[in-house]
């Protein structure tokens, strides 16, 4: 199998983060700590992961970063926008995620990161009183201002390549409408200030116009609309999303495939969380939670396929709650109660209590996503990058295609994509050939 031609990862990669809050600052802190050998980049596939190549008997298991041409973390430079003027250090202190001793050692790196003025629309984020945002008569002019930010950043930092990632607050629910149906209507909507064009869509439009890939860490629609997918194709730019798969949903997509594989019935799955960071505060607004709820609810249906297994899953009652509870800050606690049905129709229960740290789980995903999005771009992959579903709660897929939520299927898809890019054989786990010569 011939390898795909991939441009080398030479020069600097600019990582443009929309939102400089808990996740972004924890990501920067972890990368800088890894560069200084203060901490290992635990949880990052690109930094710590290996990939099996060829037959099991070959014992070829290189590190992913040695197998595919990824940007070295020493070549990353950061840029950000936020609706508040706090620099990275101030924002990290407010988020309260990074331990003080480490924070002191990377203070200069974080302090150097000052956000650019944001694109802000109160209708999409009622809970926060923004103080640091752009003013322009039309949404098109706001997009042009973001394009200028991007190009200024590129030249000032002497970047060879750029990639953008949404790490800002979840926007209020936004349904697809006519303005999103094609690029022409969308651009018309930008000029006419159509209310259905959200800030995240303005950033994404600007990124794609500048041929910068766009990854979406929140459940907002953003590039998951025909207009922006058309633009991504036109500009030859990759996009991926939506919503980092970190705590409770990560566990759900680990546990549910196991139960489904053994044909254990599930009559109910109740998930609740307490969370006290700014993300939790924004999600306390019903219109913002609705965006998140849709993303969190979607996973079980695809994994359990109730239409194919009605006796086991048709009546499953699935409920997800997030409660804003300030004392816990970023240390989210999640509870899951799963009501199971087994042999002879006997009921059983499984309880999961996950005491996690939200941004600690999300930060390595940011690193992997920006490096893989850059790889995709250099490999000429454009439009939706479904192979990155591994990282998302609500993976973007082509129209009429159902997303894959099972974490293990997502992992195989990601690894096989890397093998495909490098001209290595796909691994099917059939393995009959090991026994043929015996
Ligand atoms: N941490 C996780 O495990 C996790 C998992 C899935 C998704 N997410 C999503 O990631 C995003 C970031 O999470 P976080 O914990 O860092 O939140 P956060 O509130 O700490 O940071 C978000 C930042 O975005 C800024 N912001 C809001 N609107 C903006 C705009 N229009 N332009 C620029 N900046 C804007 C806010 O001021 C804030 O500083 C949220 O949408 C969250 O739902 C997080």
Q: Summarize this, please?
A:
The protein has 438 residues and is α/β, with parallel strands linked by helices.
Q: Could you characterize the architecture of this molecule?
A:
The chain is α/β, with parallel strands linked by helices and 438 residues long. The chain has two domains: 12-244 and 359-421, NAD(P)-binding Rossmann-like Domain (Rossmann fold, 3-Layer(aba) Sandwich), CATH 3.40.50; 248-355, Dihydrodipicolinate Reductase, domain 2, CATH 3.30.360.10. It has helices spanning 22-35, 45-48, 64-67, 88-95, 100-105, 107-111, 139-156, 183-191, 199-209, 226-235, 248-261, 278-283, 286-304, 310-313, 358-378, 407-421, 433-436; strands spanning 12-18, 76-82, 116-117, 159-166, 213-216, 238-241, 265-275, 317-324, 333-341, 347-355, 383-384. The strands form two sheets. Strands 3-2-1-4-5-6-11 form a seven-stranded parallel β-sheet, with helices on both faces. The protein has a four-stranded mixed β-sheet with strand order 8-7-9-10. The mean pLDDT is 94. The chain binds nicotinamide-adenine-dinucleotide. The site of nicotinamide-adenine-dinucleotide has 34 residues, from helix 1, strand 2, helix 12 and helix 15.
């Amino acid at each position: 199998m011939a390898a795909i031609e991939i441009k080398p990862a030479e020069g600097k990669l600019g990582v443009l983060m929309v939102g400089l809050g808990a996740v972004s600052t924890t990501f920067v802190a972890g990368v800088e700590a890894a560069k200084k050998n203060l901490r290992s980049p635990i949880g990052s596939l690109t930094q710590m992961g290996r990939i099996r190549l060829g037959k099991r008997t070959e014992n070829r298991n290189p590190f992913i970063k040695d197998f595919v041409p990824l940007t070295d973390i020493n070549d990353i430079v950061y840029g950000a926008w936020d609706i508040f003027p706090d620099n990275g250090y101030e924002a990290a202190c407010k988020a309260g995620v990074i331990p003080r001793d480490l924070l002191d050692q990377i203070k200069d790196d974080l302090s150097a990161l000052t956000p650019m003025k944001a694109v802000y629309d109160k209708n999409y984020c009622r809970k926060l009183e923004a103080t640091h945002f752009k003013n322009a008569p039309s949404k098109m002019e706001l997009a042009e201002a973001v394009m200028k930010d991007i190009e200024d950043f590129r030249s000032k930092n002497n970047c060879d390549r750029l990639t953008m990632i949404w790490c800002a607050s979840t926007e209020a629910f936004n349904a697809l409408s006519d303005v999103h149906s094609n690029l022409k209507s969308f651009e018309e909507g930008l000029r006419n200030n159509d209310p259905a064009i959200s800030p995240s869509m303005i950033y994404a439009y600007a990124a794609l116009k500048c041929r910068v890939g766009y990854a979406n860490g929140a459940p907002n629609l953003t590039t998951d609309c025909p207009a922006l997918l058309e633009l991504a194709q036109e500009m030859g730019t990759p996009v991926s999303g939506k919503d980092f798969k970190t705590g409770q949903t990560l566990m759900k997509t680990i546990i549910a495939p196991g139960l489904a594989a053994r044909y254990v019935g599930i009559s109910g799955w109740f998930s609740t969380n307490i969370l006290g960071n700014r993300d939790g505060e924004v999600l306390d607004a019903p219109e913002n939670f609705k965006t998140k709820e849709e993303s969190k609810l979607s996973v079980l249906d695809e994994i359990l396929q109730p239409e194919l297994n009605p006796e086991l899953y048709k009546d499953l009652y699935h409920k997800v709650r997030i409660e804003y509870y300030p004392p816990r800050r970023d240390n989210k606690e999640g509870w899951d109660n799963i009501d199971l049905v087994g042999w002879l129709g006997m009921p059983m229960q499984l309880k999961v209590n996950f005491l996690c740290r939200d941004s600690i789980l999300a930060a390595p995903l940011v690193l992997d996503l920006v490096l893989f999005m850059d790889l995709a771009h250099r490999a000429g992959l454009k439009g939706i990058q479904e192979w990155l579903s591994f990282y998302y709660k609500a993976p973007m897929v082509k129209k009429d295609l159902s997303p894959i939520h099972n974490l293990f299927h997502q992992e195989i898809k990601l690894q096989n994509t890397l093998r495909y890019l490098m001209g290595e054989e796909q691994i099917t786990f059939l393995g009959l050939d090991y026994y043929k010569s015996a």
